[in-house]
Amino acid sequence: MVSPTYAVVDIETTGHSPAKGDRMIQFAVVFVRDWEVQSTYTTFIQPGKKIPFFIQDLTNIADEDVRDAPIFEDVADEIFNMLENCIFVAHNINFDFSFIQAEFKRIGYPTWKCKKIDTVELSRLLFPTSFSYKLQDITLERGIQLANAHRADDDAYATAELLIECKKEIEKLPILTLEHIHKRSFHLKYDISSLFFEALQKKRKMAKTEEIDVYKRIALRRKIVQTSSEETSNTYPETKNQKRLFFSQGLQDFSEREGQFQMMDAIWQTFNTNNELAIEASTGVGKSLSYLVPAYFQVKKHGKKILISTNTTHLMEQLIDVEVPKLESIVKGKVNVAVLKGARHYIDLHRFEELLRAEDESYDDTFAICQLLVWLTRTETGDVEELNVSSGGQFFLDKIRKNAFSAKYKEVKNHDFHSYALAHSRHADLLITNHAMLFTDQNRLESLLTNDIGGFIIDEAHQFVQAANSREERIFSYTQWKYIFGQLGTTDQEQLTSSLSNVLQNHGVDAIPLLEELDRAYIRCSEKFDEAVQLLVQSIKRKGQSKSQSKQTILLDDLELDYDLLNEVYQHLHRWCKLAQSLHERLSKSLSDSTHTEKLIAAEWQYWINEMKIKTGEWIDIFLSERSNYSVWIELDRRSIPGSLHVYKKPIDSTNAVNQIFEEWRGQTGIVWTSGTLTVPGNSRFIVNQLGLPETVPIKTYAAPNDFYKGANLFVVDDMPDIQHVSQSDFIEAVADAVIQTVLITEGRCFVLFTSQDMLRKTVELIQDTGLLEGYMLFAQGMTSGSRMKLLKSFQRFNKSVLFGTNSFWEGVDVPGEALSAVVMVRLPFSSPEEPVFKTQAERLTKQGINSFSAFALPEAILRFRQGFGRLIRSSTDRGVFIVLDRRIESKSYGQEFIRALPNISVKKVSLEDMVLDLEHWYNKKV
């Protein structure tokens, strides 16, 4: 058999549309045969028109580069012949292939057909956990050199190397995985089936035993359950000299920090006296090691694990990947650490295997299955959050998450990732989890908080308040409800109920009366649901908010509600669930001789019954339960009613939820609460009071060394317009100008922090329209696709980049060194007076005779302000500027409170023009 030749192509063009006159300016192809580069070809092409400036900037190809180049007609014959009989390969093939085809068609060549491979599709399948599949990102991650991105010759060569790398990854896959993917590869968009078939044939000829686990023909990475840790240092370093010795021998870059040693001793004492302590430790103290070291020695002393809870997955990973290795260096040995998350983080293997044997999958389902099959040969955790799937694939992913209703089977237990995580945690010295997990633990059958817990460390303690409130948050989404109704249908509709009826009939189960009753319950439920929503919408319209605002937020208590109708919806929902469960029980008795398709229908039926039970609970919680300690509000867009309708219910007091977790542990074990931002000037107990900590719990503060912030400067721009006296558009124009000037001087590497998503979007759009930052990568929360961490990683990949974010970017983000030079704060981070939870809390305080601004709004804003500043200086060698564009910091009496909350740094109140001059001088001196 003759080996195929792969023509790996990349082109540069004047734009995206050949139909509108865009033309090629560079063509490059790399020929790969027998999985080695055989030859290359590249040429500039004269487009017959000026190359747009942004294309010149992007590709570094100027008009003079193509002035003497051939036109496409002169090289078309040569290109056509060299590509003939090859498999066409490109990264994002839709663009390259269609553009070249259009050019051939334009000059009269016949329609060109060939087999095609898209390395985007291929790399998404084979590297399912990669954060980005842009060529410069995926090649960097795979160690492939790409010196000049957006030059066709370099891009084509890097794509060829990526193709070869993909082939190597395919050959590493187990036979079972190759068989599953090869079967499905014919349903993917491009011609990759031969790659998997070739690897499969090669593997079958090998006699080598594969080091894998297998669950029902699904290949899994082999698991190793951790045993008790080896003996290491087990005596806490009491004296300063002992600490110096431990740290200096273990850490190459160790520099002594007085605050770190003091914090260690305070935590050690708290653990040994079974007391409770709150600690504020600023950036530069070394907070993580300050609690990891005494935690480790406490485990060695008493043999009970220490539980560490933090707020986000990113911070958990940072502890595991960065801080725990430092701890191991200090104690000179392995530290057993286990990470445990909620069940929904983990894959339900039984459910996945059921769906793996189903038919009639959509492309998104098929592709997600292929990604999962590859991932399962590599993942140690089974945490589905590791995966980077498409939005369509996310629907499939949600179907295979473990939940409270997940079936328990003996044959899956030895392979179940959640069970593995639990087993792993039993042998751990340190158990790392997140705040949300601690709250859901109260409803777990196997509690995380067992008797072998010897102490608690709650890191990012200020976020424990939010986690407590989120624990009981409920969300009603009209489109979600209609989607579930659409999945179920009645017996005379082509949906799941009809399929279930056919299975019952095939097995001779007499269920006609029950099915007829189910249909009546479904119809009545659907009708009453629509009626209730319609009345809700009418009440909103009567509320008469400004028609100029398409998006609206309204407190539910401000609306007229028909509680009898809302209760009637609940009664029909409950009736349907009861009937549906009875049908499932009847069917289950006759499934022993069923086909896999019939068993799958039964499993789907149970899945959607569970979803309806969850929705029924939501309906009760949101519309029919007591609301005195909650904020309940409606959000919608007037342009799409009722499709945009959402109702949110969130508690406003977290103290009871926190106490439920810790009340039985207080006095029995040490509890440490710590954060970089736990206090505000004049109100040191703002957060601990929200947590409901007893007044007897002391707060200790540890600051970074005096010179830690020597590289920081604060600029207050005092000639910005006052948003209360100018239009929003004028203010946004001034913000955009300030951001552009800052970015041009610092060459990017900026965070721009907003309090409003709407203002963020309008500012970014205005900046884009000016074209003044065309050479910069602009990443904007809510506009650029991807999660918060994906945007952050993308920002860090590029030198000339700017990240625009709202509140969720203001903490838990660590960008040390040159990657971040400036933080621009557009507005002081006060909550909007109309934000529902804030409004409800403020009204509650006012009724108690408390000034809600000074007691709540101001300290909350100051904490966020400190968190925004905290993004800038992450190490003693960092240098950066913190720029505030909100004049209230110098015009209002409370403005000084914000500045007082920062470390002792240089503060300059200047005009924008003077700031730019100072910034230019500072940056030139820096570089």
Write out key terms for the chains shown.
alpha/beta; Rossmann fold; Nucleotidyltransferase, domain 5; 927 residues; seven-stranded parallel β-sheet; globular; 15% strand
Low-confidence stretches: none
Mean pLDDT: 88
CATH level 3 topology of the domain at 712-926: Rossmann fold
The CATH architecture of the domain at 712-926 can be named as 3-Layer(aba) Sandwich
How many strands, what sense, and barrel or not for the largest sheet?
7 strands, parallel
The percentage helix is 40-55%
Outline type: globular
CATH class of the domain at 712-926: Alpha Beta
N- and C-termini, Cα separation: 59 Å
Count up the helices.
35
Gyration radius from CA atoms, angstroms? 31 Å
- Strand coverage percent: 5-15%
- Quickly give the structural class: alpha/beta
Tell me what you see in this structure.
The protein has 927 residues and is α/β, with parallel strands linked by helices. Among the domains are: 5-172, 2-Layer Sandwich (Nucleotidyltransferase, domain 5), CATH 3.30.420; 475-651; 712-926, P-loop containing nucleotide triphosphate hydrolases (Rossmann fold, 3-Layer(aba) Sandwich), CATH 3.40.50. The strands form 5 sheets. It has a 7-stranded parallel β-sheet with strand order 10-11-9-12-17-8-18, sandwiched between helices. The chain has a 7-stranded parallel β-sheet with strand order 21-22-20-23-24-19-25, with helices on both faces. The longest helix has 32 residues, at 512-543.
